[in-house]
């Protein structure tokens, strides 16, 4: 928990990392995903069935099973970010970032003074091992935090180059579903206009020296996204996998019974 962020290290080494979404508020499901080979789990406090505090407790289950946790917070409020960091979230994804000013505010909220304005409680928080890690505030809190900002609206596209220059932001994570919807193409990510927008964002991120992340889809599989330079690809979610398995089992049952 308090040592090196191995996910950040893997990404910075050039590895393409794949992950699964955790949407069901169950530590058993979190463990199951890791034991089934999904060693990186994105705990979704935006769309999942759990609140922030319950989601942050899922970090324990993921890490205890040997995995690495990413927490998608529900909003970019300073208090939300501070709580997530204090509770031990080392890799954080922030949804719906619309401008460079917002990205800068988010990054500042994740950094201690003088680099930012994160509130100080380092000796008593889980992130520091409740004070066991003496240099948490001076070094680890900055060096081992992986901050991802989500670009999910066309209005944000013109700000990506500036976002890429902000201290503390490590990755631009593109949300193609919401991007397509905001462009007027709900559930139609394969439109040429959407792919043009994706290409524009990708180029700006690469030119700015940041890492790229996204979800599986928009007509692109894992191989295509890896070749496209993506460092983090989040694929299936627990609810979808359970639903598909349930449907498959039901069909098999019905076909057997006749």
Which properties best describe this structure?
TIM Barrel, 8 strands, 11 helices, lyase, globular
Q: Output the CATH topology.
A: TIM Barrel
CATH homologous superfamily, by name? Answer: Phosphoenolpyruvate-binding domains
Cross-sheet strand order for the largest sheet:
1-2-3-4-5-6-7-8
Under the CATH scheme, which architecture would be assigned? Alpha-Beta Barrel
Quick one: how many beta strands? 8
Distance from first to last alpha carbon: 52 Å
Structural class: alpha/beta
- The percent range for helix content is 40-55%
Shape: globular
The overall number of domains is: 1
Task: State the major sheet.
Answer: 8 strands, parallel, barrel
Number of helices: 11
Question: What string gives the helices and strands in order?
Answer: HEHEHEHEHHEHEHHEHEH
Pfam family, one: HpcH_HpaI
EC number: 4.1.2.52
Keywords: Lyase, Metal-binding
Protein name: 4-hydroxy-2-oxo-heptane-1,7-dioate aldolase
Topology:
Elements: H1 6-12, E1 17-22, H2 27-35, E2 40-44, H3 52-64, E3 68-72, H4 78-86, E4 91-94, H5 100-109, H6 136-143, E5 146-151, H7 160-163, E6 171-174, H8 176-182, H9 192-208, E7 211-215, H10 222-227, E8 230-237, H11 238-257
Parallel strand pairs: 1-2, 1-8, 2-3, 3-4, 4-5, 5-6, 6-7, 7-8
Helix pairs in contact: 2-3
